[in-house]
Every structure is written in structure tokens, then in C-alpha cells.
Automatic annotation (TrEMBL):
Superkingdom classification of source: Archaea
Protein family per UniProt: Belongs to the universal stress protein A family.
Pfam family, one: Usp
Protein name: Universal stress protein
CDD domains named among the record's database cross-references: USP-like
Length: 141
């Protein structure tokens, strides 16, 4: 049985399903909820990338804290301890790098992120993580 599970979360319903799955399937494992802050993500309504300033990074970290709180609040399990970690960079690369940094021995992630096109079985981030990770990856739909 895995002793440490990395669960990437981007706020999508698929990521939340993966978090629930990890908690239910590996009740004795250490759960690390992870968010990759993507400096190259253009959000709807923006025509260009925002400047990468300390203020921008602080705003992203604040949003990540809210994302983690929302993810925990919607769980029906109170006694689970969930650690949180963040990284900055391309999501797939940052997730793969986080495996070593968090000493995870498995990744459980959603099949598609919040920007995934409907109808796709697996998004590009999940596909890259599956290809590049040195630990088992469970993709949850």
C-alpha cells in the first residue's frame, strides 16, 4: 500500500473526485494536496499574461489557500489530515517534481482540469504526468 499520495488540485470537479478517491481508497496514507501555480495561464477576459510580480505571486498563493479550504470543506470526512503544498511552473512538470519534494510514492489525479475540453477522456496535464512520473499514477474520472 502507498504510504504517501500526492493529489494535484486545480479547483475542478475532477480534481475533487480524485481527492475523495484517494482518501477513501488509501485511508492510512499521508495525503498531500498539491496545487501548481501556472505563471503562463491566461484566464478568461485577459488578453495577455499578467506581470509576474511579488504581488501577483501573493495573489496566487491566496487563491490557492482558498482552493485548499474549499476542497477540504466539501469533504465528508473530518478526521483526515491533509497536508498542502504548492509549486510554481508548468502544471505537469511541477506535479512530477513535487513527487520527489513531498516524498510521495503515488499520484492520484483527476482526468481533466478546469480548462479541459468536454468529451476528452484525459487532459493534457494528466497525460504528461502519466508519461513522466516515476511513481504509479491513478487517473480518476
Amino acid at each position: 500500500m502507498p504510504r504517501s499520495i500526492l493529489v494535484p488540485h486545480d479547483g475542478s470537479s475532477s480534481a475533487q473526485t480524485a481527492l475523495r478517491y484517494a482518501i477513501e481508497t488509501f485511508p492510512d496514507a499521508r495525503i498531500v494536496l498539491f496545487h501548481a501555480i501556472d505563471p503562463f495561464e491566461v484566464t478568461p477576459g485577459e488578453e495577455q499574461l499578467p506581470p509576474l510580480t511579488d504581488e501577483w505571486l501573493e495573489d496566487q498563493r491566496s487563491s490557492t489557500t482558498a482552493l485548499f479550504e474549499d476542497a477540504r470543506a466539501s469533504l465528508e470526512v473530518d478526521e483526515v489530515t491533509i497536508e498542502t503544498e504548492t509549486g510554481v511552473g508548468s502544471p505537469a512538470q511541477t506535479i512530477v517534481a513535487a513527487v520527489e519534494e513531498t516524498d510521495a510514492d503515488q499520484i492520484v489525479m483527476g482526468s481533466r482540469g478546469k480548462s479541459g475540453a468536454p468529451g476528452l477522456r484525459m487532459g493534457s496535464t494528466a497525460e504528461l504526468v502519466v508519461k513522466r512520473a516515476d511513481v504509479p499514477v491513478t487517473v480518476v474520472r
